[in-house]
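Problem 3 from the worked examples.
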Amino acid sequence: MRWLCALLLVLLAVPAWAQAERSALARVDLVNSSLVAEGRDRGRPRPLELELTISQPVPYRVYFLDGPPRLVVDFREIDFAGTDANALRGRELVPALRWGRFRPGWSRMVMELPGPYALRTAVQAPARGGAAGALVRLDIEPVEAEDFVTRGNALSALWDLPKPSAIAPPEAHRHTGRPLRIAIDPGHGGHDPGAQVGAIYEAAVMLGFARELTETLTRAGFEVVPTRTDDSFVPLEQRMTIARAGRADLFISLHADALPVGQAAGLSLYTWNQDADDRASRELAIRHDRDDLLSGVDLQGADDQVANVLMDLARMDTQPRSEAFAKFVVSELNKAGLAMHSRPIRGAAFSVLKSPDIPSVLVELGFLTDPGDRANLFDPAWRAQTAQAIARGIGAWAQDDAIRAGLSRR
């Protein structure tokens, strides 16, 4: 295929001069790193030169993504902890820059670009002046839109789905007798911290609650499939893939977002609705997808007409089951006397809910921008009650789901 032939993917092994044993991960030297533009600023994209000085050489790969145009560099592995991408000299030359851990063994840098670019050179050499370490230099230049070559894209919302003949309602837990499997998805992670209020990060708070919920569900006899267990970044569609690989019967994504004070407060549950017109829901959906785009994930093309038709057909079974699950959980939360949003069940176009083959909900445990919600999220008793209510909701939903499945086969 043409895009494979033209693919700007660079795989660089550690050079011979750096084969000595290394005892720690590479780290970035920001003082000796920079982003520089060539020529005068005439309001058009200019050639850019990125130089990263690192404590030791590492293999890396380079490619581009679109929507918006981005340069992505995966390293194996740089420890970006404690280094602020926005502190890089020349950072103001590009719309956005992020870096951090991507997945175990790999780190990622994503640079949003002012337009389509192509890779001119990619070099890893000894650090300047005889210093220890290595210098990674990437030169990129503006190109016309028709010459912009990306890594390629599939219908990301449909990646790793079963074959069409198998997109029937998941039947395993209704017939095999094995425990129900729940995919627990703590939102954000790694270089995507999610919502931030002072020193509080959504990714960390959700990981902590996910661990408590996992323990509660396990004690209740359920099996848990986690999408992440540490502070690492997992792309949206990979979270769905992990759930499928674990044969999950239900997918629960956990979040605690931030909106302008007074605009939103209280626990709520979301199911998929691409036509949701609630202002807060739209803002949250845009921010979630934007975070993933800036983290090097290509969602472009995921919503074309063919994808929508296929997913709508599959959702004829899973969407009502997702909505039923949300109602059971809200019922249990009410019984426990836990305060919720005035509209506890809502729809939104969150990409993490696109999976058409697994009933999926997003639980907004509260908003970090609301003082009451923040207090709840840090209250062990509130967290325990919420986890137990969710577990009871899962159990009630599973029984009802099995009964409905039996009726539908008659």
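Problem 4, a separate protein:
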Amino acid sequence: MSGPPAGTPYWGPAEPAPQPQVHGVVTADVAVVGAGLAGLACAYHLAERAPGLDIAVIDAQGPAAGASGRGTGLLGPRAGPAVDRAVRRFGPGTARRMHQASLRAVTDVLDLCARLDVPWVRPGAQIMAARSPGGLMALARQARAYRELGLDVPVLSAAGIRERVGVAYRAGLVHRPAAALDPAALTGALARACVAKGVRFYGESPLLTVRPGDLVGPELVFPHGRLYAGQAVLAVNSAAQHLNLPVGTVFPLEVYALATAPLSAPAYEALGGRAGYSVVDAVPLAPYFRLLPDRGVMAGGGSAALPSGLGTPRLQAQRERAWYWLERWLRSLHPELAQVSVTHRWSGRIAMTADDVPVVGPLHGFPDVWYIGGCGGHGLALSVAHGEHVAAALLGERGTGDPMPWHRSRAPRLPVRGPGRALLRAYVDIHGRVVRRTC
């Protein structure tokens, strides 16, 4: 492999302005911890709707340093479990509302990208496809559920998929609206828009703990100082676990991605370049691919790992195995991909819950503190929507409609410490091996 060292994302850095650490005692009307898409969307909408509000954004590193800058930029509809499972769990009415909310989230992100002049936004369609028997069964269940709910999600035959992306899948579903974009560019644009609206930023300041304040609002403790706020938003995703936040179990999974050098123009068009298609396998954790603006291809999925205290050599060996399999899978899709060089390989962390439903709600026992996290790998659209939802809630603008299933303060608990963690790791590993054998 040529190019930057392993671990370097395809996307460039968000390039924020230098940010001071939290030192001494700092105050704010609203403190947002986490400078990813959810936290920055929350700060942006707060500043836009309440211009006089004193808002501080604090991050352990800086904007887009976490999952928001290390994703693969697939913007598509999905909120919580697959639609057929959502019907069984929540009923048809709520399942329909969940899907429609995810569609609105996609269009809202596209509108936001246009407003902030985000580069590398490629509207198109997202095809959920299958090659394995398990994937076909999953697609059939989802197609039936969409049809019974009266949702417009067309079915594609094998010939229809090949006509669009030149890859041999057996069937698929077409999701619109969808797009492919640069997630770090969106995050950086949000950060700059927040600065332009007067939001203060602090970097290199990991949150150590949060406490109910003595007089008003919470107290946030950092290595070199404290911040007292009237209200706080903890957009910290799976960091909730080591902060011992009372949000149930929101645990991290490490996932993997790679990008290639540019293809020839005919090969790029054969893989759907003109129409901007992305393809996601219907099996959970299964691999997917999208095209890049420089005519390269990006792929992700196929493996996941529960982060542990592995030493650096073992952790790197685990990543190398995941990248090796993902590269082989990508090269198998089309003859033009057989010799293209891989230029970038990296990993990132997503946050999962036991029931695949995010957590967006006030923190129990902590007045005026909200938490956002647990999108399960579908956070590009949902994180922005969740940030806007929490901003509206803090300003007293919440609507009177029924809440979504993810408007909750806790996820189910899982035994992720001691023997339970080993069992969860074994489950993830076995699931990944099944995916790699069948895709």
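Solution to problem 4. The chain has a mean pLDDT of 90. The first helix runs from residue 37 to 49.
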